[in-house]
Protein backbone atom coordinates (compact mmCIF):
# COMPACT_ATOMS: atom_id res chain seq x y z
CA UNK A 1 0.00 0.00 0.00
CA UNK A 2 2.81 2.40 0.85
CA UNK A 3 4.57 1.57 -2.43
CA UNK A 4 1.42 2.33 -4.42
CA UNK A 5 1.06 5.62 -2.56
CA UNK A 6 4.66 6.54 -3.42
CA UNK A 7 4.10 5.83 -7.12
CA UNK A 8 0.98 8.01 -7.06
CA UNK A 9 2.86 10.80 -5.22
CA UNK A 10 5.71 10.76 -7.74
CA UNK A 11 3.30 10.93 -10.66
CA UNK A 12 1.40 13.87 -9.17
CA UNK A 13 4.69 15.60 -8.37
CA UNK A 14 5.64 15.45 -12.05
CA UNK A 15 2.44 17.30 -12.92
CA UNK A 16 2.59 19.71 -9.95
CA UNK A 17 6.29 20.11 -9.02
CA UNK A 18 5.46 22.63 -6.28
CA UNK A 19 3.92 19.78 -4.24
CA UNK A 20 6.63 17.47 -2.94
CA UNK A 21 6.04 13.69 -3.00
CA UNK A 22 6.08 13.76 0.81
CA UNK A 23 3.24 16.26 1.01
CA UNK A 24 1.20 14.38 -1.62
CA UNK A 25 1.79 11.12 0.26
CA UNK A 26 0.62 12.43 3.62
CA UNK A 27 -2.50 13.87 1.98
CA UNK A 28 -3.12 10.50 0.31
CA UNK A 29 -2.78 8.69 3.62
CA UNK A 30 -5.17 11.10 5.28
CA UNK A 31 -7.70 10.70 2.45
CA UNK A 32 -7.50 6.90 2.68
CA UNK A 33 -8.07 6.95 6.44
CA UNK A 34 -11.03 9.32 6.06
CA UNK A 35 -12.72 7.35 3.27
CA UNK A 36 -12.11 3.62 3.20
CA UNK A 37 -10.25 3.38 6.47
CA UNK A 38 -7.15 1.34 7.24
CA UNK A 39 -7.68 -2.28 8.17
CA UNK A 40 -5.80 -4.16 10.85
CA UNK A 41 -3.83 -6.16 8.29
CA UNK A 42 -2.16 -2.97 7.02
CA UNK A 43 -1.26 -1.54 10.41
CA UNK A 44 2.04 -3.39 11.02
CA UNK A 45 3.43 -2.43 7.62
CA UNK A 46 2.30 1.18 7.92
CA UNK A 47 3.80 1.39 11.40
CA UNK A 48 7.07 0.11 9.95
CA UNK A 49 7.26 2.71 7.19
CA UNK A 50 6.17 5.57 9.44
CA UNK A 51 8.96 4.85 11.93
CA UNK A 52 11.81 2.67 10.60
CA UNK A 53 11.74 3.92 7.02
CA UNK A 54 11.34 7.50 8.28
CA UNK A 55 14.56 7.25 10.27
CA UNK A 56 16.49 6.02 7.24
CA UNK A 57 15.06 8.87 5.15
CA UNK A 58 16.09 11.52 7.69
CA UNK A 59 19.58 10.04 7.93
CA UNK A 60 19.98 10.04 4.13
CA UNK A 61 18.85 13.67 4.03
CA UNK A 62 22.28 14.49 5.42
CA UNK A 63 23.95 13.27 2.23
CA UNK A 64 22.39 16.20 0.38
CA UNK A 65 24.24 18.75 2.53
CA UNK A 66 27.88 19.70 1.96
CA UNK A 67 29.08 22.01 4.71
CA UNK A 68 31.63 23.82 2.49
CA UNK A 69 28.82 24.80 0.10
CA UNK A 70 26.74 26.09 2.98
CA UNK A 71 29.67 28.05 4.45
CA UNK A 72 30.33 29.56 1.03
CA UNK A 73 27.04 31.44 1.39
CA UNK A 74 28.84 33.90 3.65
CA UNK A 75 28.32 34.93 7.26
CA UNK A 76 25.58 37.40 6.36
CA UNK A 77 23.32 34.74 4.85
CA UNK A 78 24.12 32.24 7.58
CA UNK A 79 23.26 34.86 10.21
CA UNK A 80 19.88 35.47 8.55
CA UNK A 81 19.14 31.73 8.54
CA UNK A 82 20.26 31.17 12.14
CA UNK A 83 18.40 34.15 13.61
CA UNK A 84 15.16 33.57 11.69
CA UNK A 85 15.13 29.87 12.56
CA UNK A 86 16.09 30.39 16.21
CA UNK A 87 13.58 33.17 16.85
CA UNK A 88 10.73 31.27 15.20
CA UNK A 89 11.47 28.01 17.00
CA UNK A 90 11.76 29.76 20.38
CA UNK A 91 8.77 32.09 20.17
CA UNK A 92 6.20 29.83 18.47
CA UNK A 93 5.66 27.36 21.37
CA UNK A 94 5.12 30.25 23.77
CA UNK A 95 2.46 31.74 21.51
CA UNK A 96 0.93 28.26 21.20
CA UNK A 97 0.54 28.08 24.98
CA UNK A 98 -1.21 31.46 24.98
CA UNK A 99 -3.60 30.12 22.33
CA UNK A 100 -4.35 27.07 24.48
CA UNK A 101 -2.69 24.50 22.21
CA UNK A 102 -0.95 21.41 23.53
CA UNK A 103 2.81 21.35 23.94
CA UNK A 104 3.08 18.73 21.21
CA UNK A 105 1.16 20.73 18.61
CA UNK A 106 3.07 23.92 19.38
CA UNK A 107 6.44 22.14 19.26
CA UNK A 108 5.74 20.41 15.93
CA UNK A 109 4.43 23.58 14.28
CA UNK A 110 7.50 25.46 15.50
CA UNK A 111 9.75 22.72 14.13
CA UNK A 112 8.06 22.42 10.75
CA UNK A 113 7.85 26.15 10.08
CA UNK A 114 11.31 27.08 11.34
CA UNK A 115 13.36 24.22 9.82
CA UNK A 116 12.23 22.05 6.92
CA UNK A 117 8.54 21.23 6.91
CA UNK A 118 7.26 17.67 6.97
CA UNK A 119 10.66 16.01 7.45
CA UNK A 120 11.40 18.13 10.52
CA UNK A 121 7.95 17.48 11.98
CA UNK A 122 8.38 13.73 11.55
CA UNK A 123 11.90 13.77 13.04
CA UNK A 124 10.84 15.77 16.09
CA UNK A 125 7.81 13.57 16.62
CA UNK A 126 10.01 10.46 16.57
CA UNK A 127 12.50 12.01 18.99
CA UNK A 128 10.12 13.17 21.72
CA UNK A 129 7.13 11.77 23.56
CA UNK A 130 5.03 14.94 23.85
CA UNK A 131 3.16 14.64 20.55
CA UNK A 132 0.66 12.28 18.95
CA UNK A 133 -1.06 11.78 15.59
CA UNK A 134 -3.41 14.73 16.13
CA UNK A 135 -0.48 17.04 16.86
CA UNK A 136 1.29 15.83 13.72
CA UNK A 137 -1.87 16.32 11.68
CA UNK A 138 -2.19 19.95 12.70
CA UNK A 139 1.48 20.68 12.04
CA UNK A 140 1.53 18.96 8.65
CA UNK A 141 -1.62 20.80 7.61
CA UNK A 142 0.03 24.10 8.49
CA UNK A 143 3.14 23.29 6.43
CA UNK A 144 1.07 22.36 3.38
CA UNK A 145 -1.22 25.39 3.65
CA UNK A 146 1.27 28.18 4.25
CA UNK A 147 4.15 26.64 2.33
CA UNK A 148 2.03 26.32 -0.78
CA UNK A 149 0.76 29.89 -0.41
CA UNK A 150 4.38 31.07 -0.14
CA UNK A 151 5.13 29.82 -3.66
CA UNK A 152 2.92 32.63 -4.97
CA UNK A 153 3.29 35.26 -2.25
CA UNK A 154 7.06 35.33 -1.76
CA UNK A 155 8.00 36.22 -5.38
CA UNK A 156 5.08 38.68 -5.54
CA UNK A 157 6.11 40.48 -2.34
CA UNK A 158 9.77 40.43 -3.42
CA UNK A 159 8.83 42.21 -6.64
CA UNK A 160 6.74 44.78 -4.78
CA UNK A 161 9.51 45.46 -2.26
CA UNK A 162 12.18 45.56 -4.96
CA UNK A 163 14.43 42.72 -3.79
CA UNK A 164 17.30 41.72 -6.06
CA UNK A 165 17.43 38.11 -7.38
CA UNK A 166 20.10 37.28 -4.79
CA UNK A 167 18.01 38.70 -1.97
CA UNK A 168 14.95 36.78 -3.19
CA UNK A 169 16.92 33.53 -3.18
CA UNK A 170 18.10 34.07 0.38
CA UNK A 171 14.67 35.10 1.59
CA UNK A 172 12.95 32.10 0.00
CA UNK A 173 15.54 29.69 1.40
CA UNK A 174 15.33 31.22 4.88
CA UNK A 175 11.55 31.55 5.11
CA UNK A 176 9.71 28.92 3.05
CA UNK A 177 8.92 25.58 4.68
CA UNK A 178 9.60 22.71 2.24
CA UNK A 179 12.66 22.18 0.05
CA UNK A 180 10.35 21.48 -2.91
CA UNK A 181 8.53 24.76 -2.31
CA UNK A 182 11.81 26.67 -2.23
CA UNK A 183 12.89 24.91 -5.43
CA UNK A 184 9.63 25.93 -7.11
CA UNK A 185 10.22 29.58 -6.22
CA UNK A 186 13.87 29.40 -7.23
CA UNK A 187 13.17 27.76 -10.58
CA UNK A 188 10.49 30.31 -11.47
CA UNK A 189 12.66 33.25 -10.42
CA UNK A 190 16.02 32.11 -11.81
CA UNK A 191 17.67 31.65 -8.39
CA UNK A 192 17.26 27.89 -7.97
CA UNK A 193 20.80 26.96 -6.85
CA UNK A 194 21.17 29.80 -4.37
CA UNK A 195 17.72 29.39 -2.82
CA UNK A 196 18.06 25.62 -2.36
CA UNK A 197 21.57 25.97 -0.85
CA UNK A 198 20.23 28.47 1.70
CA UNK A 199 17.38 26.08 2.47
CA UNK A 200 19.81 23.20 3.03
CA UNK A 201 21.66 25.47 5.44
CA UNK A 202 18.43 25.54 7.44
CA UNK A 203 18.12 21.77 7.23
CA UNK A 204 21.53 21.43 8.93
CA UNK A 205 19.92 22.96 12.02
CA UNK A 206 17.56 19.97 12.30
CA UNK A 207 20.07 17.86 14.23
CA UNK A 208 21.12 20.38 16.91
CA UNK A 209 17.56 21.61 17.46
CA UNK A 210 16.15 18.08 17.84
CA UNK A 211 19.04 17.11 20.14
CA UNK A 212 18.68 20.20 22.32
CA UNK A 213 14.92 19.77 22.56
CA UNK A 214 15.29 16.13 23.52
CA UNK A 215 17.86 17.04 26.17
CA UNK A 216 15.56 19.72 27.60
CA UNK A 217 12.62 17.31 27.77
CA UNK A 218 14.81 14.78 29.61
CA UNK A 219 15.63 17.40 32.21
CA UNK A 220 11.97 18.39 32.60
CA UNK A 221 10.94 14.76 32.96
CA UNK A 222 13.63 14.15 35.59
CA UNK A 223 12.53 17.24 37.52
CA UNK A 224 8.82 16.39 37.42
CA UNK A 225 8.30 12.70 36.59
CA UNK A 226 4.79 11.64 35.61
CA UNK A 227 3.25 8.50 37.12
CA UNK A 228 3.30 5.60 34.68
CA UNK A 229 5.72 7.28 32.24
CA UNK A 230 8.94 5.31 31.90
CA UNK A 231 10.19 6.36 28.46
CA UNK A 232 12.73 9.16 28.42
CA UNK A 233 13.61 11.03 25.25
CA UNK A 234 17.14 10.02 24.13
CA UNK A 235 19.93 12.58 24.38
CA UNK A 236 20.29 12.30 20.60
CA UNK A 237 18.26 9.76 18.62
CA UNK A 238 20.43 7.40 16.58
CA UNK A 239 18.86 8.49 13.29
CA UNK A 240 19.67 12.14 14.07
CA UNK A 241 23.26 11.14 14.84
CA UNK A 242 23.27 9.27 11.51
CA UNK A 243 22.02 12.45 9.80
CA UNK A 244 25.01 14.34 11.22
CA UNK A 245 27.36 11.55 10.17
CA UNK A 246 26.01 11.71 6.61
CA UNK A 247 26.57 15.48 6.53
CA UNK A 248 30.19 14.91 7.58
CA UNK A 249 30.68 12.18 4.98
CA UNK A 250 29.22 14.35 2.20
CA UNK A 251 31.39 17.28 3.29
CA UNK A 252 34.59 15.27 2.74
CA UNK A 253 33.95 15.42 -1.01
CA UNK A 254 34.69 11.69 -1.37
CA UNK A 255 31.16 10.61 -2.29
CA UNK A 256 30.88 9.73 -6.02
CA UNK A 257 28.74 12.08 -8.09
CA UNK A 258 26.49 9.18 -9.09
CA UNK A 259 25.60 8.65 -5.43
CA UNK A 260 24.99 12.31 -4.61
CA UNK A 261 22.81 12.61 -7.71
CA UNK A 262 20.70 9.61 -6.74
CA UNK A 263 20.33 10.35 -3.02
CA UNK A 264 17.62 13.05 -3.34
CA UNK A 265 15.40 10.72 -5.35
CA UNK A 266 15.89 7.85 -2.89
CA UNK A 267 15.22 10.14 0.05
CA UNK A 268 12.05 11.46 -1.58
CA UNK A 269 10.74 7.93 -2.07
CA UNK A 270 11.48 6.85 1.51
CA UNK A 271 10.09 10.06 3.01
CA UNK A 272 6.92 9.75 0.93
CA UNK A 273 6.39 6.17 2.14
CA UNK A 274 6.94 7.20 5.76
CA UNK A 275 4.60 10.17 5.61
CA UNK A 276 1.92 8.12 3.88
CA UNK A 277 2.03 5.80 6.88
CA UNK A 278 1.82 8.79 9.21
CA UNK A 279 -1.07 10.23 7.21
CA UNK A 280 -3.17 7.09 7.67
CA UNK A 281 -3.25 7.84 11.39
CA UNK A 282 -4.66 11.34 10.97
CA UNK A 283 -8.30 11.98 11.91
CA UNK A 284 -9.63 14.60 9.48
CA UNK A 285 -12.57 15.42 11.75
CA UNK A 286 -10.24 16.46 14.53
CA UNK A 287 -8.04 18.33 12.09
CA UNK A 288 -11.00 20.33 10.81
CA UNK A 289 -11.55 21.63 14.33
CA UNK A 290 -7.95 22.79 14.63
CA UNK A 291 -8.49 26.48 13.95
CA UNK A 292 -6.01 27.52 16.61
CA UNK A 293 -3.29 25.37 15.05
CA UNK A 294 -3.87 27.06 11.71
CA UNK A 295 -3.68 30.45 13.45
CA UNK A 296 -0.42 29.51 15.15
CA UNK A 297 0.99 28.30 11.84
CA UNK A 298 0.13 31.62 10.24
CA UNK A 299 1.76 33.53 13.09
CA UNK A 300 4.89 31.35 12.93
CA UNK A 301 5.09 31.76 9.15
CA UNK A 302 4.77 35.51 9.61
CA UNK A 303 7.59 35.51 12.17
CA UNK A 304 10.07 33.51 10.07
CA UNK A 305 9.20 35.56 6.97
CA UNK A 306 9.49 38.94 8.70
CA UNK A 307 12.70 38.21 10.59
CA UNK A 308 14.41 36.72 7.54
CA UNK A 309 13.24 39.60 5.31
CA UNK A 310 14.61 42.13 7.79
CA UNK A 311 17.92 40.27 7.81
CA UNK A 312 18.04 40.16 4.03
CA UNK A 313 17.36 43.90 3.79
CA UNK A 314 20.10 44.69 6.33
CA UNK A 315 22.82 42.19 5.45
CA UNK A 316 22.45 40.75 1.93
Automatic annotation (TrEMBL):
Keyword set includes Membrane: yes
Membrane topology: Multi-pass membrane protein
Record bears the keyword Transmembrane helix: yes
InterPro entries on file: UPF0324_pro (IPR018383)
A Gene Ontology cellular-component term: plasma membrane
Transmembrane stretches, start-end: 24-42, 54-71, 107-124, 136-161, 192-214, 235-253, 265-282, 294-315
Keyword terms, alphabetized: Cell membrane, Membrane, Transmembrane, Transmembrane helix
A Pfam family per the record: Cons_hypoth698
Coiled-coil parts of chain: none
Cell compartments where the protein resides: Cell membrane
Family to which the UniProt record says this protein belongs: Belongs to the UPF0324 family.
The protein's name: Putative sulfate exporter family transporter
